[in-house]
Design goal:
With 146 residues, this protein is mainly beta. The chain has helices at residues 56-65, 107-112, and strands spanning 4-10, 15-18, 26-35, 47-55, 71-84, 90-103.
Length: 146
């Protein structure tokens, strides 16, 4: 099985090109900065930079809505490849072929945080009662379920 799930922020606006031919296909390339869970002693880098590529409608969506700093969630598969550069050296590539993508935060929270900072989460000790919200009496008819 080859399945990847990533959540991170775009390091720059997606680069979109269209294939040649009668039915051109959008191809979007972008890089996501994915925070590491743990930091080693003396390690400066706290994120991995993952190259992603999407095709068709997924690429058109990225072109229209994704911008540098946007927090996204992508699922897809890892694809490796190689090519020979102009100096005659073989270059190996690894990228995620995006199958699904979505925003990982609302536009409002992205603009409040400047697009780069995490929003604060309340500590579990701050939870009130049993963690469930009380529904006021008399609004049963307004709920979409019973």
């Amino acid at each position: 099985m080859n399945k990847v799930i990533l959540m991170g922020r775009l390091t720059r606006d997606p680069e979109v090109r269209y294939s040649q031919g009668e039915s051109s296909l959008a191809i979007a390339r972008y890089t996501i900065a994915v925070d590491r869970r743990f930091k080693r002693d003396g390690d400066q880098q706290t994120a991995d930079f993952i190259s992603c590529v999407s095709f068709g409608k997924t690429a058109e969506f990225a072109e229209k809505y994704y911008r540098q700093g946007t927090k996204v969630l992508v699922t897809g598969r890892i694809q490796t490849g190689s090519y020979t550069n102009k100096d005659g050296q073989k270059v190996y590539t690894t990228e995620v072929v995006v199958e699904e993508q979505e925003f990982a935060e609302s536009k409002a929270s992205a603009s409040e945080s400047g697009g780069f900072q995490q929003t604060a989460r309340p500590e579990p000790s701050q939870a009130i009662g049993d963690g469930f919200m009380n529904i006021p009496d008399g609004i049963d008819e307004e709920l979409p379920f019973n």
